[in-house]
């Protein structure tokens, strides 16, 4: 059981790191686009956001789902799912700055869900 707890904690920490990278990507893209408009062609591509969201959803489902099996609390997974929903909703918004704001809010909510999962596992 201790080995499962260690594995779950690592998954959640990895998922928190991925969420952090997503937030850094959003902020860096906004700053970078402001400084170098020509770079927006690559970093602003919707495929980057779609792939990132897909990875975040898969990793979150694995980490938070294993947490439910381990400790039985649904709150961390519910909060994480809310954050992923906010992130997914942000994909439907026009790229005018609000999309990045909603993505960052979603990332923070997902990170909170993962943090609660780590605390519930300890």
Q: Can you walk through the features of this model?
A:
With 122 residues, the chain is mostly helical. The protein has one domain (2-121). 86% of the residues lie in helices and 0% in strands. The mean pLDDT is 83.
Biggest β-sheet strands, sense, barrel = none
Query: What is the multimeric organization of the chains shown?
Result: single chain
Helix content: over 70%
Radius of gyration: 15 Å
H and E order: HHHHH
Taken as a percent bin, the fraction of beta residues is: under 5%
Calculate the mean pLDDT score and round it: 83
User: What structural class results from the helix and strand content?
Assistant: mainly alpha
Shape: elongated
* Tally of individual domains: 1
Distance between the termini: 12 Å
Annotation, overall tally of beta strands: 0
Uncertain spans, ≥5 residues at pLDDT below 50? none
**Tally of separate helices:** 5
Short recap of the structure:
With 122 residues, the chain is mostly helical. Helix content is 86%, strand content 0%.
